[in-house]
Amino acid sequence: MRSLIHLFGAGLLYALSLAAADAATGGDPVAVTQVDVELCLAATADDDVDKAATACAAVIDNEKTAKEDLIKALIARGALLARHDQVDRAIADDSRALLLDPTLADIFNARGELWLKKGDKPKAVQDFGAALKIDPNHAKAKANHKAMARELERIGAQMAVAGKPSFNCARARRAVERAICGNRELADLDREIFASNARVIRTARNADEAKALQREQDEFIARRNAGFGRPGYDLKKAMQERLQRLNGVGGY
């Protein structure tokens, strides 16, 4: 009997405490304050960095912000940061938005352009490719991906010949040729001289001019072969001067 009395008393106290709480709040549940994402969007649209910093943080840092509003705020702030060359912070916002919604082709492309600003070409190509997987007709991503693919192909081709001269080192017989084969910088210079000489001959105004240009190249090679190993002869300097002349510095 006593236990029933105690149980009844406890229940009565709980009911009284609820009644008191309702009385204190007017009987209505406590409302959750909703942060207005439009303030963030307006500030970023106006390019107002100071106002956007407060308005967007209020949305992004609020745990109760709806997913859709959070994505909007992240994208808007990321674009603002990108416009003001805060690349790392812009990438962070875009990355968070993509985690929430990995179907945003525009944001993959935007982040790709930011990676490009940082000089990270592989990540840029990856993001442009991701944008195209989502939207194969995305014009900006398509142009960016094509340009980067060409650039990476060019870099790959350069890396393939880096440190290699214009001639076959396996057939090198002269001391100067072996010296060029044994030095990456000299090998690169030799290859550049060869390519530049081919270019000026290809663009010669007529056959006589082309012959004269080739004769000058042959004379340089002859001087190089004869001068190498002699006191005071600087092979690297001679090659640099020849390249400068071919490329128009004090020459054509």
Quick recap:
It contains 12 helices and no strands.
Features:
disordered N terminus, 252 residues, elongated, mainly alpha
Describe the overall structure:
- The chain is an all-alpha fold and 252 residues long.
- The chain contains 12 helices and no strands.
- The chain has helices spanning 2-24, 37-45, 49-60, 67-83, 87-100, 105-118, 121-134, 139-161, 175-181, 184-202, 207-227, 235-246.
- Helix 3 (49-60) runs antiparallel to helix 4 (67-83) and helix 10 (184-202) packs antiparallel against helix 11 (207-227).
- The chain is elongated.
- Mean pLDDT is 84; it is low at 1-32.
Write the layout of secondary structure elements.
Layout: H1 2-24, H2 37-45, H3 49-60, H4 67-83, H5 87-100, H6 105-118, H7 121-134, H8 139-161, H9 175-181, H10 184-202, H11 207-227, H12 235-246
Helix pairs in contact: 2-3, 2-4, 3-4, 4-5, 5-6, 6-7, 7-8, 10-11, 10-12
